[in-house]
Design brief:
Helix content is 55%, strand content 22%. The chain has 532 residues and is of the alpha+beta class. It has a six-stranded antiparallel beta sheet with strand order 7-8-6-11-10-9, with helices on both faces.
């Protein structure tokens, strides 16, 4: 009874277990919210990166197609003419001396055109006899006559199929985007001709049309296996991957263009590439196309770096086209995500703090309520609390026609104990008696200190006859339990008055009746029970 009513009257939320649950729920909610926004941020970033990769692929394809179309125009209007084709036809069956004259004639007819086109990015005008023998390189006219079998797969394919071949291909001197055409004169195949663009030409147009930083890295093993040793000094190690090289002319162009682009300083770009290498090395080795985001150190810029694999005419991944583009969309979204994360974290901390303060306030309230309803010496409920409970029990008994019994007890000769052993020992007797009462009565019974050496017991749902049985057990327990006071042993007894609540009895009548029973117990010799 005591425990149920005490819990009902003094408990508050959150309790100790309640506050722990509250903290756990707040932490889980905050963590769940942060995880949700983190996943949403990652998903949106991944979609944006995929879109960026697709856009860059389309842009690169548009650039290469534009150069292919220009090459087609050059070939149809300047190369695929009878006067040029006749030269190649005569060179096919001519002596070395005659081939030299035909080579000089070809140079005379096309050198001015080549010089003009070279200024616009055309790197190679290269004529080949059948069987892939070099006839005239306009970029290197004194170097001719060698077989390109096993070196230039594009030329071999045109010789086999008699159809144009386009694509990226490494070579002895240069790499580039090549367009190789078959040459026919009067229905006879007389050789092939190549119009190739350098990457510098492509990136120059790319910077003008789609402002960004562009570079090309080439697979080390494939490149060094094809390029002449005299040309290998033109390449340097790539910071992004040890498996790739880049041409020093590309690096020089990037360094020259960076101030105008105002995207990132060259030194920062170098450091960023070292960091990127750790993130993208595996994907490069797998030949994947992808984009990654990178926040520029010390600034508020985010760059999207796109890696597009480039296959040669054999279908091998030999290079990567890389672009670095400033992206305001992703920057805004990341900033918004950081603000949301900050707000959610602050809200979580506020809720934890508010919950802690509320719990502390409730604990103080419980403490004060306990102090107000508990006897400070014996730790049993005090008279005020007992009155409140008794009123509630009486109301329920009246409403339900129920019964309960009231017991009042007094420690026999308590004044003598105080006078003989002192008040400290008297306090020990009170505490010992209270402890015995609480441990002896039933769980549903309520024990309280009434005042001085008097205690009361409320026994709900109990008749006087039943109450006397309970009280007899209590009396014997007290009488048989000594109280140790230093070297002295004190035997304590109590006198008990017991009465049963009767319908329509007032509280005053109840206490008056039980007081009378206690008085009779005292008068008739103490250490006894009087039931009325």
């Amino acid at each position: 009874m005591e425990q149920k009513l005490r819990k009902k009257m003094v408990s508050g939320w959150p309790s100790l277990s309640g506050i722990s649950l509250y903290f756990v729920l707040v932490v889980l909610c905050v963590a769940g919210t942060l995880y949700f926004f983190s996943m949403e941020n990652a998903e949106r970033e991944e979609k944006h990166l995929q879109l960026t990769t697709e856009q860059q692929r389309i842009q690169l394809r548009a650039l290469t197609i534009s150069f292919e179309n220009i090459a087609d125009v050059i070939f149809q209007n300047h190369i695929n003419r009878d006067e040029i084709l006749a030269i190649m036809a005569r060179a096919n069956s001519a002596t070395e001396e005659e081939q030299t004259r035909q080579r000089e004639l070809l140079w005379e007819k096309l050198s001015t055109l080549y010089e003009n086109l070279y200024d616009h990015g055309v790197r190679q005008f290269h004529f080949h006899l059948p069987e892939a023998n070099s006839f005239l390189r306009f970029h290197h006219p004194s170097f001719f006559g060698e077989s390109l079998q096993g070196v230039r797969h594009s030329i071999e394919r045109v010789n086999e199929t008699r159809l144009p071949v386009r694509g990226f291909e490494e070579g002895k001197n240069y790499y580039g985007f090549r367009n190789v055409y078959p040459l026919h004169f009067q229905g006879k195949f007389v050789g092939t001709m190549e119009i190739s663009y350098s990457f510098l030409a492509l990136r120059k147009l790319a910077v003008r049309v789609f402002p960004a930083i562009y570079t090309l890295i080439l697979h080390k093993d494939i490149l060094l296996n094809a390029v002449l040793k005299s040309e290998q000094s033109s390449y340097r190690q790539c910071f992004i991957s040890e498996s790739y090289l880049k041409h020093q002319d590309v690096v020089a162009n990037i360094k020259k263009e960076l101030p105008k682009l105002n995207i990132i300083p060259f030194q920062t770009l170098k450091e960023m590439n070292k960091t990127l290498g750790r993130k993208v090395e595996k994907r490069l080795l797998l030949g994947q196309e992808f984009s990654v985001s990178h926040k520029v150190p010390g600034g508020d810029k985010i760059l999207l770096v796109t890696f597009l694999p480039i296959k040669n005419v054999k279908g091998e991944n030999v290079a990567y086209f890389i672009s670095y583009k400033e992206d305001s969309y992703l920057l805004d979204f990341k900033n918004r995500y950081m603000r949301i994360r900050f707000i959610v974290t602050c809200a979580g901390l506020f809720l934890l703090l508010a919950g802690g303060l509320y719990h502390r306030q409730e604990e103080k309230k419980k403490k004060y309520m306990t102090l107000a309803t508990t006897d400070s010496l014996t730790s049993v409920p005090n008279r005020r609390h007992f009155d409140l409970v008794t009123d509630q029990v009486m109301r329920e008994a009246k409403r339900k026609q129920g019964v309960f019994s009231l017991v009042i007890l007094d420690i026999d000769d308590f004044k003598k104990v105080n006078d003989t052993f002192g008040h400290e020992i008297g306090d020990q007797v009170l505490m010992s008696t209270a402890a015995l009462l609480r441990s002896t009565v039933r769980e549903q019974d309520l024990v309280a200190r009434w005042g001085g050496e008097e205690f009361v017991i409320l026994l709900p749902g109990t008749s006087a006859q039943q109450a006397c049985i309970v009280v007899e057990k209590v009396r014997r327990a007290i009488a048989s339990t000594p109280v140790m006071a230093d070297l002295d042993t004190i035997m304590v007894t109590c006198s008990f008055g017991v009465t049963q609540y009767v319908q329509h009895m007032t509280k005053e009548d109840l206490f008056k009746k039980v007081d009378m029973a206690l008085y009779q117990a005292k008068k008739s010799g103490k250490n006894r029970i009087i039931c009325t």
